[in-house]
Design brief:
There is one protein chain. With 298 residues, this protein is of the alpha/beta class. Helix content is 38%, strand content 17%. It has two domains: 177 residues, Rossmann fold, CATH 3.40.50; 100 residues, Rossmann fold (3-Layer(aba) Sandwich), CATH 3.40.50. Helix 2 links the parallel strand 3 and strand 4. The chain is globular, with a radius of gyration of 18 Å. The relative contact order is 0.16. The mean pLDDT is 95. Bound molecules: pyridoxal-5'-phosphate.
Length: 298
């Protein structure tokens, strides 16, 4: 079984912003089936499961969860059973994401609101030889995979000054932040209303007070959007040929472009933006809202 994959590409964006250098870490291309930070967060969870003869991976998430789809892909790829508990007894279990999960062999169980809290914390009876992986795949084993992502960037661009990425449950940011050299700034862009420093300090041990963030680009909250965001996503695709989703990378790249324009980054900065994947979410989004955002072609 190969765990060591080639580095995902680091592409220089020929931006109009000549006072800084902008790079795109194409982590959306890191693994043949498990995109972006999902591969980074699941890698050591999968290794751990296989080494300890665990045969079932159990997790929770929303009906459009990138994490649950990635878990189902991982289960199929590495020969493990998977179970996904879905928030909401009325969740649309026939949407694009959950159809794909089921096609990968995942068992799907919608749960009532009264059970959200215990299930979120993994406080329910698991099948024998099963392990619980929290929402978004963010646990201690995930940090190791995200640390590797940072080391990869440092190897590809030793004088990187800033790393920029979307922030959801925070595992990716935590792994990178705890691994980085002191002179590198990490700029987290929350795609929902929260304070990343307070959020990470509650979950992980470590001092996150030096983490930079901007809370101005959540577009009203998790999975909320407006026409300005959709127009940006289409224009970005026209300009670069790269697809981005409306929940994570669309918002964070919108933020990055705005911050570059506002001269947030000092002259001479070498800024790496991590494309964290999530392209499956575009198909579900288009289906749900009858939209035509550019989708990834496999
Ligand atoms: C595509 C994508 N990008 C970014 C994130 C945010 O990562 P994290 O939850 O580790 O902050 C997620 C959610 O896990 C995601 O699915």
């Amino acid at each position: 079984m190969t765990w060591k994959l080639p580095y995902s590409p680091l592409e220089k964006i020929n931006a109009d912003y000549c006072e800084i250098s902008l790079y795109l870490k194409r982590d959306d291309l890191v693994h043949p089936t498990i995109e972006g930070n999902k591969w980074r967060k699941l890698k050591y969870n999968l290794k751990n499961a296989l080494a300890n003869r665990i045969n079932t991976l159990v997790s929770v998430g929303g009906a459009y969860s990138n994490h649950l789809l990635a878990l189902s892909q991982a289960g199929k790829h590495y020969g493990l059973k998977t179970q996904g508990y879905i928030y909401g007894s009325h969740a649309d279990v026939h949407n694009y994401t959950l159809r794909a999960c089921r096609n990968n062999g995942m068992e799907i169980f919608p749960i009532a609101k009264s059970l959200f809290e215990p299930y979120k914390k993994g406080m329910f009876v698991l099948p024998p030889d099963a392990v619980f992986i929290p929402e978004g795949g963010s646990n201690m084993l995930a940090l190791e995979g995200c640390r590797e992502l940072y080391l990869e960037i440092e190897d590809q661009l030793p004088d990187v000054t800033h790393i920029v990425l979307p922030f959801g449950s925070g595992g990716t940011t935590a792994g990178i932040y705890l691994a980085k050299k002191p002179q590198v700034d990490v700029l987290a862009l929350p795609i929902l209303k929260l304070n990343p420093v307070e959020h990470l300090s509650r979950i992980y041990t470590g001092d996150f007070s030096g983490l930079k963030y901007s809370g101005e680009y959540h577009f009203g909250g998790y999975a909320r959007f407006n026409d300005e965001l959709l127009t940006f996503i289409k224009a970005w695709h026209e300009k670069t040929g790269i697809v981005i989703d409306p929940v994570y990378n669309g918002k964070a790249l919108f933020a990055l472009c705005d911050l570059v324009e506002k001269k947030y980054f000092p002259e001479g900065s070498k800024v790496v933006y991590i494309h964290t994947g999530g392209s499956q979410g575009i198909c579900g989004f288009n289906e749900r809202y009858n939209c035509a955002l550019p989708e990834r072609k496999y």
